[in-house]
């Protein structure tokens, strides 16, 4: 390791002057907790790449450009995207006892120790600019979400013309996807996508043309998201079919909504406007209730689900691997 500090190296490489260094040190001595390199970058004296290159010299570690390296996507998705982004770290490769990473802050011992604890391996560190790391992580967004997106896309296709209208995403180390509606709940699948967030799930549904209603609950060990996708709009009086919502706008509702429709959240109905009640049955004149909240006789021509006669609910090709078939019945 070089005995010279970063400021001396910057002067030696003619990247700054002694006056530049003195100015940065004065700012630091005034209570600024940032490292001297960060201050010099903010003052416009050097670039971040200059700093990272000199830090690599100072610590005798490699300085790399990610464009020159073929990354292992399967390795990257083992780690939380938030952790990688927040700490400006990206995994490069691993062996049986070593994980090699690039970071803009080789002095971040807390993050490096977390990697060591998580993998049980020694950590080899290379220097890299934060811009390079963030751009690469952004380009790899689908690496983190690809499996989830594929599962959700296939599920939405299967649920068309069924009476399931809600998707539950439960994450506790693994992700369980349940489908819910018309007095029935079915576990659709369980996958292990690595560390994911509520925002990762939302990212898929943000592509829906009409948006989605939702509730989310955070726990110490994970989260639960309930999503009601809006696939099309038409004149309805109760919710009993996947992705169908009324065409009378604006609408008020007792749950959250994300999308471009004129939908507003309200704990109570607003006279003169349609009101979608997800949480409990509403007797309001213009209320639209989910069928599972109806207490009295079921409405005319509701879509009922019954266990598949072929597989008895265990899922088969005949029922599109949902475990149920659907037919219109009178209440």
Instruction: Please tell me how large the radius of gyration is.
Output: 27 Å
Strand count, sense and closure of the main sheet?
Answer: 6 strands, antiparallel
Can you tell me the number of structural domains? 3
Mean pLDDT: 89
Euclidean distance between termini CA atoms: 80 Å
Give the neighbour order of strands across the main sheet. 6-5-4-8-7-13
Give helix % range: 25-40%
Number of helices: 10
The chain-level structural class is: alpha/beta
Sketch the topology as an H/E string, one letter per element: HHHHHHEEHEHHEEEHEEEEEEEEEEEE
Overview of this protein structure:
With 331 residues, this protein is an alpha/beta fold. It has three domains: 6-59; 66-139, Type II secretion system, protein E, N-terminal domain (GMP Synthetase, Chain A, domain 3, 2-Layer Sandwich); 143-329, no CATH class. 29% of the residues lie in helices and 27% in strands. The protein has helices spanning 6-12, 18-29, 36-42, 48-59, 73-76, 81-87, 109-119, 130-139, 141-159, 198-205; strands at 89-94, 98-103, 122-127, 166-172, 174-180, 185-191, 212-219, 222-229, 232-233, 238-239, 244-245, 251-253, 256-258, 263-265, 274-277, 287-290, 302-307, 324-329. The longest helix is centred in the middle third of the chain and has 19 residues, at 141-159. It is elongated and about 85 Å long. The mean pLDDT is 89.
């Amino acid at each position: 390791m070089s005995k010279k500090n970063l400021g001396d190296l910057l002067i030696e490489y003619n990247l700054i002057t002694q006056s530049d260094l003195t100015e940065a040190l004065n700012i630091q001595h005034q209570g600024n907790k940032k490292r001297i390199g960060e201050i010099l970058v903010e003052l416009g004296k050097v670039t971040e790449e200059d700093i990272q290159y000199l830090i690599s010299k100072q610590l005798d570690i490699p300085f790399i450009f990610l464009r020159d390296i073929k990354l292992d996507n399967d390795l990257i998705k083992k780690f939380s995207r938030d952790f990688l982004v927040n700490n400006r770290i990206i995994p490069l490769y691993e062996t049986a006892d070593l994980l090699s990473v690039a970071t803009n802050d080789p002095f971040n011992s807390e993050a490096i120790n977390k990697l060591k604890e998580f993998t049980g391996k020694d950590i080899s560190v290379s220097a890299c600019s934060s811009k390079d790391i963030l751009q690469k992580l952004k380009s790899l967004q689908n690496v983190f979400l690809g499996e989830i997106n594929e599962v959700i896309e296939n599920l939405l296709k299967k649920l068309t013309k069924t009476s399931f209208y809600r998707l539950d995403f439960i994450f506790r180390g693994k992700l369980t996807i349940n489908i819910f509606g018309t007095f029935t709940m079915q576990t659709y699948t369980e996958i292990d996508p690595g560390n994911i967030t509520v925002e990762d799930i939302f990212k898929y549904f943000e592509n829906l043309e009409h948006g989605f209603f939702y509730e989310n609950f955070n726990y110490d060990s994970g989260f639960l998201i309930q999503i009601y996708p809006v696939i099309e709009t038409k004149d309805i009086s109760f919710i009993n079919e996947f992705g169908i919502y009324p065409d009378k706008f604006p609408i008020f509702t007792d749950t959250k909504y994300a999308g471009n429709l004129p939908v507003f959240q309200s704990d109570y109905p607003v006279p003169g406007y349609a009101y979608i009640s997800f949480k409990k049955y509403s007797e309001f004149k213009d209320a639209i209730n989910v069928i599972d909240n109806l207490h009295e006789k079921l409405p005319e021509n509701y879509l009922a689900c019954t266990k598949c006669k072929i597989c008895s609910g265990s899922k088969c090709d005949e029922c599109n691997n949902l475990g149920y078939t659907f037919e219109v019945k009178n209440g």
